[in-house]
Amino acid sequence: MKEFVKAMDGLPWIVKLILALPGIDGFAWGIYRLVKGISSNNMTLIIAGIVWLLVGWAVLWILDIFTLLTQKNVTIFA
Prior knowledge:
globular
């Protein structure tokens, strides 16, 4: 699981931005948050991952794009 987190963290910024587009974001970054939470035993990240899987495609992708544009990384609950 830690390899998946390292792989997602190591992606180029433009690929992260593409993964944050509507429809893709809920799955890609939701799974990332869920796996990162499980591997680090962080309940907040696990809950955030589940929430991102459920509603990330509809609303939360905006937060990911905003943080990627301002900080070059997905940082909300991650």
